[in-house]
């Protein structure tokens, strides 16, 4: 059988090219720590990795929304804590003024402080959230509450605050409307304080007005307590969601590592084997190319 000279050269040259490419590939896997560089390296694993990366990106978006909701709920709780402090002081003043034994001068002093508390509550009710929006606003409105020329304070928004998506088909409200926290029926704290302040300023018997104020302030304190409890329950739920996402991310990372990360020990062994074969092939090729025609015929 005749063997062409080109065959003698092409076969080892092709083998050396393949071995060099294989060595380069393994060296890249070791250097990067990644077993899969392109889809052709392992199509099945590559597709699974793409799914893992997409799930990680989705959960990253949910985690960001959960963080935003947590910030809003924390701000809601902090603000309502200040509201409760103002209401407790208003309750103390109303209790003092309602017994009917105060002098007109003292009543004026109490009326002035109650008016100041009402203004402070108006400011708290119009607190801006971390996004620059009304913390206690509704679905619409640039501010939560407005004050009319006659001093009347009313809720300016409409509807419920927009819910924040925290999972596939799952949303949560990060705050509560001002109508529910500050101006709910008999516990409209602005109306309660406004009416009692006016009664104190007018003078005369304020016993009936005082009783109405005490009832209204106590109702407001109870309302704020319920709102804070609701916010606390949502915050606790978000903590569980945060833990769930963390667990899912840990499981994905384990799966990703098993599919993608280089087994360095095995890779080094394979590289050494490939380089040994490559060196032997190169040596053989060098010897082959050094043979003369006489050597072939001999």
Question: What features would you describe in this structure?
Answer:
The chain has 298 residues and is mainly alpha-helical. Helix content is 70%, strand content 6%. The chain has a two-stranded antiparallel sheet. A two-stranded antiparallel sheet has the order 3-4.
Please supply descriptive tags for the structure shown above.
6 strands, 298 residues, 8 helices, 6% strand, two-stranded antiparallel ribbon
- Indicate the percent of residues in helices: 55-70%
Question: What's the end-to-end separation, in Å?
Answer: 16 Å
**How many strands in all?**
6
Low-confidence stretches: none
State the oligomer: single chain
Shape: rod-shaped
Radius of gyration: 38 Å
- Structural class, by secondary structure, is mainly alpha
């Amino acid at each position: 059988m005749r063997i062409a000279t080109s065959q003698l050269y092409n076969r080892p040259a092709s083998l050396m090219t393949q071995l060099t490419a294989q060595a380069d590939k393994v060296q890249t896997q070791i250097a990067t720590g990644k077993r899969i560089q392109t889809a052709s390296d392992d199509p099945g694993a590559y597709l699974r990795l793409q799914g893992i990366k997409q799930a990680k990106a989705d959960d990253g978006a949910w985690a960001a929304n959960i963080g935003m909701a947590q910030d809003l709920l924390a701000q809601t709780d902090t603000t309502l804590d200040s509201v409760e402090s103002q209401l407790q002081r208003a309750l103390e003043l109303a209790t003092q003024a309602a017994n009917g034994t105060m002098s007109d001068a003292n009543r004026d002093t109490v009326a002035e402080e109650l008016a100041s508390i009402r203004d402070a509550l108006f400011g708290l009710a119009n607190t801006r959230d971390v996004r620059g929006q009304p913390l206690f606003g509704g679905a619409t409105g640039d501010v939560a509450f407005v004050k009319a020329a006659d001093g009347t304070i009313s809720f300016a928004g409409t509807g419920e605050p927009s819910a924040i998506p925290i999972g596939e088909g799952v949303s949560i409200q990060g705050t509560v409307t001002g109508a529910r926290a500050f101006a709910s029926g008999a516990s409209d704290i602005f109306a309660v304080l406004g009416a009692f302040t006016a009664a104190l300023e007018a003078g005369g018997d304020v016993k009936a007005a005082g009783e109405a104020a005490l009832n209204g302030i106590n109702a407001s304190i109870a309302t704020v307590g319920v709102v804070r409890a609701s916010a606390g329950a949502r915050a606790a739920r978000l903590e569980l969601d945060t833990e769930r996402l963390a667990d899912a991310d840990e499981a994905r990372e384990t799966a990703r590592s098993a599919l993608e990360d280089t087994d360095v020990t095995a890779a080094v062994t394979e590289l050494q084997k490939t380089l040994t074969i490559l060196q032997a092939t190169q040596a053989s090729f060098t010897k082959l190319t050094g043979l003369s025609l006489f050597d072939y015929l001999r």
